[in-house]
Amino acid sequence: MSNKRRVAILGATGAVGQRYIQLLQGHPWFEISVLAASERSAGKKFKDAATWLMDTDMPKEIGEMQVANIDVKSAEQTDDFDLVFTSLPGDLAGPVENEFGAHYPVFSKASAHRMDNDVPLIIPEINPDHIELVKVQQKKRNWKGFITTDPNCSTIGMTLTLKPLMQFGIQQVMVTTMQALSGAGYPGVPSLDIIDNVIPYISGEEEKMESEALKILGTFNGVSIDYADFQLSASCNRVNVKDGHLEAVFIKLDKEPSLEETETAFTTFKGEPQKLKLPSAPTQPIIVRHEKNRPQPRYDRDAEQGQSVVVGRLRKDPIMTLKYMCLSHNTVRGAAGGGILSAELYVTKGLA
Question: For residue 7, is pLDDT > 50?
Answer without folding.
Answer: yes
